[in-house]
Amino acid sequence: MERVKLQRRTLLRGAAALGAIGGLPQSLRAADPGSGIDWSALATDVRDQMEFAWDNYRRLAWGKDEIRPVSGTFSSFPLKDRHLGLSLIEALDTLWVMGLDEAFAAGVDWVKGNLDFAVDGEVSVFETSIRLVGGLLSAHHASGDPALLAKARDLADRLLPAFDTPTGMPRRFINLATGETRQSVTSPADIATYLPEWGTLSLLTGDERYVEATKRAAVAVFERRSKLGLVATQIDVDTGEWHSRRATVGSYCDSFFEYLWDSWQLLGDADCKAMYNVCTSAILKHQQVWRDGALWFADVDFETGEIVSTEQDELASFYGGLLGQGGAMKEGAAYTESWAALQARYGILPEGYDYLAGEATQMTNSLRPELADSAFTLWLIDRDPRWRSIGRDHFLAMKQFNRAPFGFTDMADVTSNPKRQADHCPGYWWSEQMKYYYLLFSDTPRFDYARNYLTTEGNVLQGFLPQSGATS
Predict the structure, then answer these.
(1) How far apart are CA 7 and CA 68, in angstroms?
(2) CB atoms within 10 A of CB 60
(3) Is 172 helix (H, G, I), strand (E, B) or coil?
(4) Can you give the three-state secondary structure of 311-356, one letter per residue?
(5) Domain ranges of the chain
(6) Fewer CB within a 10 Å sphere, N or C end of the chain?
(7) Beta bridge partners of 453
């Protein structure tokens, strides 16, 4: 594997690759003439819902991690009993792309005046990186404010000791103040969902430690794949030994595959593209299942290819978009359509679904963005209005079922009649689906629809266009 040394031209090369996939900018209205749908009005509605939720967050939970939209209270994450302004940070670049500049400025002011990572508490390295490091970098991309970059770098420095293991793969948890790490048995997603954010950090700071540590971790997972080319869900980062035999495209492995492609797309890393191709070929060969005209991906034994589960994880509904990006558009479109059919059936996707039994296995939904993510990604590729329609259905169902007195909440049971709400708004809601909806419907001049990059958390690290009068 080549040693990665990032320069600005590598970022431009990644942009060119995306431009070749996504085509030239195009008006959303021109994409589906005669549809009769007022996409601009939908975009305004998305923006209005964001303002409604933000106003309640600012009034009831300002600076707290996550609001409880039914009760009007709040909860902390990723620390157990301390707050880092998670939802606020995750919302920043969504506020900016929607043109909510006063709200964006208020959030940035809070970060600059209040955010301090010198906390004696343990966090998930993976969750903290994708949500907070990524959120701060995307807000820096929107505003150019060096204070946001400094905050992102401070946090990455506090997470970096987790990568100091015999294999170079990070332990799962770290104390932000002491650097003490814990839990060596972890997943490919926890190990290798860093390179786009940390590669961007290296590019912006000139410090190669970030890109080198995170690429080494991704390579270490890949090199331990089975003879079939598959990886499993659990591995010990100290010994390099697998603690599971189950291969999946869902939780525990999903963003490992995603970030192999993304590191090529954003950073121009040819090694990562080659690794993505090997993994994807293995998945398509050993996990692809067609049933009643619908495409699914079974969980299999990573060494034998034998099917071990027909249950589908809702988190895997992002995968159709990734397949499309990587060139398997037929399979990507079919898999997204499989999930869209379930959305039509249930209104909101259940967390688990067994394609063999034809029934939901987990009735909850944690206000998930993955199907909207896939629809947006596929739409960027071919501008087929079908993908926007899937995004529209996702948004309208959220308005109907998830809206609560003080924002939008996750669901306790999507199969009951009426559907039952829970009382929690995850931080990623602010960063992901609200942004996907708006970008799908708005044709905003603040976003480059041909050359862009969104992280697994929906954070925009490439593609914001400068605007006169925007917050700086």
Answers:
(1) 43
(2) 17
(3) coil
(4) EEEHHHHHHHHHHHHCCCHHHHHHHHHHHHHHHHHHCCCCCEEECC
(5) 8-462
(6) C
(7) 462
Q: What six digits make up the tokens of 152?
A: 């992102």
**Residue-wise pLDDT tens digits, 220-231:** 999 999 999 999
Q: 163: which DSSP letter? A: G
**Amino acid symbol at 116:** D
Whole-model pTM: value is: 0.92
User: Among 390, 399, 346, 397, which Cα is nearest to 372's?
Assistant: 390
**How many other C-beta atoms are found inside a 10 Å radius of the C-beta of residue 343?**
17
Quote the CA–CA distance of 348 and 276 in Å, as a whole number.
31
Q: Which position has the token pair 């939720």?
A: 53
Give the pLDDT confidence of 46-95 residue by residue, as tens digits.
Answer: 999 999 999 999 999 999 999 999 999 999 999 988 999 999 999 999 99
Going from the C-alpha of 35 to that of each of 30, 46, 372, 381, the distances in angstroms are 10, 19, 20, 20
Two tokens, residue 186: 């972890």
What are phi and psi for residue 332, nearest 5 degrees?
-65, -45
Cα–Cα distance for residue pair 419/352, rounded to 1 Å: 16
Both structure tokens of 81: 């009993």
